[in-house]
Amino acid sequence: MARIGIYGATGYTGFELIKLLVRHPGVAIAFATARSAAGKRLSDVFPTLIDQPLVSVEQADLSSVDLIFTCLPHGAPELVPLIQAALEAGVRVIDFSDTFRLRDPDDYARRRGHPHPAPELLGAAVYGLPELYRAQIREARLVANTGCYPLTAILPLWPLVRAGLIADQTVIVDSKSGVSGAGRSLALKTHFGEAHETFSAYNVGRTHRHLGEMEQETGLHIIFAPHLLPVFRGILSTIYVTLQPGTSLAEVRAAYDVFAAEPFVKLLPAGQLPELRHVQQTMSCVLGLQPVEPEAGRYIIVAAVDNLLKGASGQAVQSMNLMLGFAETTGLV
Ligand SMILES: NC(=O)c1ccc[n+]([C@@H]2O[C@H](COP(=O)([O-])OP(=O)(O)OC[C@H]3O[C@@H](n4cnc5c(N)ncnc54)[C@H](OP(=O)(O)O)[C@@H]3O)[C@@H](O)[C@H]2O)c1
């Protein structure tokens, strides 16, 4: 059994991860950390049959594990030092934050407005998207798990870029996320009274912190409009692309054959579009393709995922399976 440590076990992604790992046949959880609930048990926080003592970050013993998941907020002061300590101790890391997703430290500094906290580690980090980087993830010491919004932009766009079909390099990605995407900590915008029975856009245009990885992985210039949906989980992105004029629906669909053997990506038959309720609680990234004005190259792609599974914890387990030599879908189907 591989020994696993989880940092941030009382967050939305941390708990989702534990739910997956407890039924994984090849791993055992050696420790789980919490901040405010350190010293309690997981079942004190989430009263279910799943239980686990919760320790503080300082109490977690890196010598007891082979691999850790860091499910901490991107700005947590403990995050980078503990990743450095883990790597020095020979422990492999899957990080959920966006700290190591951009490869270029100058790009990071330009987009974030401050230098990267550990530029020496960027060379070791592999972008955690198995559909693009399967071979590299197998060997990686540090995996930067893909962001949930970026997943719904990169998987639909990458096949079109790869096939050379994109004519207009500026692409609109119009995304809607359930409130769990913002995490479990209290915030005015995501509390019930502010979020239910309404619908709002935020960080629209060129400002959202996930834009960088979308552009890095697709090579496109992206206009991104995220929205907050009054549901708990799921992201649906509607993507407006202009392809080479006259590209037929059959040619566009053929570009997605690259995903034919993927266990968790599916292009729907012509005429069908994905819906949130069909991907919630699943590992599926479901894509739908709609011709708009094919003679002018205009198409719409719709992508839907569960942000906590394929968009976070499930994707991380998919990468862990690759890193530890398990079948890629172990514990996920
Ligand atoms: N939510 C999503 O859909 C999603 C999708 C993809 C990626 N991510 C990324 O995954 C990471 C975790 O997100 P989340 O939604 O699970 O967040 P969350 O629900 O807010 O949980 C964060 C966890 O980290 C702990 N924590 C917070 N600050 C800490 C600190 N300074 N030191 C030690 N522990 C600390 C929290 O403990 P307390 O409860 O005591 O504060 C909690 O256990 C983030 O980097 C996020 O960007 C999230």
At a glance:
The protein is an alpha/beta fold. It is built from eleven helices and 14 strands. The chain has two domains: 2-146 and 311-324, 3-Layer(aba) Sandwich (Rossmann fold), CATH 3.40.50.720; 148-307, Dihydrodipicolinate Reductase, domain 2 (2-Layer Sandwich), CATH 3.30.360.
First-to-last CA distance? 20 Å
Strand order of the largest sheet: 3-2-1-4-5-7-6
β-sheet strand percentage:
15-25%
Number of domains: 2
Looking at the structure, the CATH topology of the largest domain is: Dihydrodipicolinate Reductase, domain 2
Which architecture name of the largest domain does CATH use? 2-Layer Sandwich
Give the overall shape, derived from the CA principal axes: globular
Q: What's the CATH first level of the largest domain?
A: Alpha Beta
Q: What Rg, in angstroms, do the CA atoms define?
A: 20 Å
- Helix content bin: 25-40%
Mean pLDDT, as a whole number?
Answer: 97
SS-based class: alpha/beta
General description of the model:
With 333 residues, the chain is α/β, with parallel strands linked by helices. Helix content is 29%, strand content 23%. The strands form two sheets. Strands 3-2-1-4-5-7-6 form a seven-stranded parallel β-sheet, sandwiched between helices. Strands 9-10-8-11-14-13-12 form a seven-stranded mixed β-sheet. Helix 1 (12-21) packs across helix 11 and helix 6 packs parallel to helix 8 (211-218).
